TrEMBL record:
PANTHER family: HTH-TYPE TRANSCRIPTIONAL DUAL REGULATOR CECR, HTH-TYPE TRANSCRIPTIONAL REGULATOR RUTR
Gene Ontology molecular function terms on file: DNA-binding transcription factor activity; transcription cis-regulatory region binding
Gene3D superfamilies per UniProt: Homeodomain-like, Tetracycline Repressor, domain 2
DNA-binding region: 24-43
Limits of the HTH tetR-type domain: 2-61
Protein known as: TetR family transcriptional regulator
Pfam families xrefs: TetR_C_7
Origin organism lineage: Bacteria, Pseudomonadati, Pseudomonadota, Alphaproteobacteria, Hyphomicrobiales
Keyword terms: DNA-binding
InterPro entries: Homeodomain-like_sf, HTH-type_TetR-like_transc_reg, HTH_TetR, TetR_C_Proteobacteria
């Protein structure tokens, strides 16, 4: 994706913070200083623009780094904690909250595919990103689970907990960086307490 396309998607996110998802392609074109024809060429229809926007926001969650050498309990914990911190930082931001509020507001109404787009490119995408790290941890004898999906749901619950719901409901007390670090470290410690094997 080009830098110019990223600028367009950032303009969409800012519009959603200001107006929800009721914006028009023309409004995006004005905000991003480009033509509607360019937007259609790059992203297709409005759903294509929304999908690209959600993927762009989700891409801001840093991928967990798999160590080049043998995976240890310490390196596994560090990778999971780094991912959790990045994930919490992104999903509690104003941009993500605006996306999720818009998705929830249309859920089941048939008016918008935004809910489906957010699910596919949000939680489901995070699961796909974490699975290689989970599998590496199991292969190294550091994690024990029968079902990677079940392990991800446990990780999701421990990391996200009620943080996102509170933000969606308007809680002005968003977690600061130090709070996110503490929550992430605690969640990973609890996760390893449930699924950790081998080294201590």
């Amino acid at each position: 994706m080009s830098e110019r396309q990223q600028e367009v998607l950032d303009a969409v996110l800012k519009l959603m913070v200001a107006e929800g998802d009721g914006f028009s392609v023309a409004a995006v074109a004005r905000a991003a200083s480009c033509s509607k024809e360019t937007l259609y060429k790059w992203f297709g229809d409005r759903d294509g623009l929304l999908t690209a926007t959600v993927r762009w926001q989700a891409s801001k969650v840093r991928m967990p780094k798999l160590p080049q050498e043998r995976l240890t309990r310490q390196s596994l914990e560090a990778a999971l904690t780094g991912f959790a911190e990045s994930w919490l930082t992104v999903i509690t931001s104003d941009l993500s909250i605006a996306l999720n509020r818009a998705a929830v507001s249309h859920a089941g109404s048939g008016k918008s595919r935004l809910g489906e787009i957010v699910l596919t490119n949000g939680p489901f995408a995070m699961k796909r990103r974490l699975e290689p790290l989970f599998e590496a941890g199991r292969a190294a004898g550091l994690l024990g689970f029968d079902d990677a999906a079940e392990a991800f749901h446990a990780f999701f619950g421990l990391v996200v907990a009620d943080q996102q719901i509170r933000a969606l409901l308007g809680d002005a007390n968003r977690p600061a960086a130090a709070d996110i670090a503490a929550v992430s470290a605690r969640a990973v410690h609890q996760f390893l307490g449930l699924y950790g094997r081998g080294e201590t």
